[in-house]
Amino acid sequence: MSVTVYVAEGCTDCADLLADLARRRVAFEVVNLTRDPARLVELAALTWERRLPVTVDHERCSIGFAGRSSSWSELGLSLPRSG
């Protein structure tokens, strides 16, 4: 079983979470929102929180790592404008 982790570049909480998952040998898929900002729409449909990292395990979303998280705006992210 694999979890999906939404992260952004420059997010130390995201880097810490990915390192922890790798250390514990948890299978995960990374969605890098810096490289693929269109997937912010997908993440916004899963949670109203606008913070990272987000871990999705089936229908459950966990936000942050070790009690810390970064806002989308702190990371320069925002939902794409609909046309």
Topology readout:
Blueprint: E1 3-7, H1 12-23, E2 28-32, H2 40-46, E3 51-52, E4 54-57, E5 60-63, E6 70-71
Strand content: 25-35%
Helix segment tally: 2
Q: Would you identify the CATH H-level superfamily?
A: Glutaredoxin
Tell me about the largest β-sheet.
4 strands, mixed
Describe the structure.
- This protein has helices spanning 12-23, 40-46; strands at residues 3-7, 28-32, 51-52, 54-57, 60-63, 70-71.
- It has 83 residues and is of the alpha+beta class.
- It has a single domain (3-75), classed as Glutaredoxin (3-Layer(aba) Sandwich), CATH 3.40.30.10.
- The chain is 23% helix and 27% strand.
- It is globular and about 40 Å long.
- The strands form 2 sheets. Strands 2-1-4-5 form a 4-stranded mixed β-sheet, with helices on one face.
- The relative contact order is 0.27.
Task: For the structure shown, list the relevant keywords.
83 residues, alpha+beta, Glutaredoxin, four-stranded mixed β-sheet, two-stranded antiparallel ribbon, 6 strands, 23% helix, globular
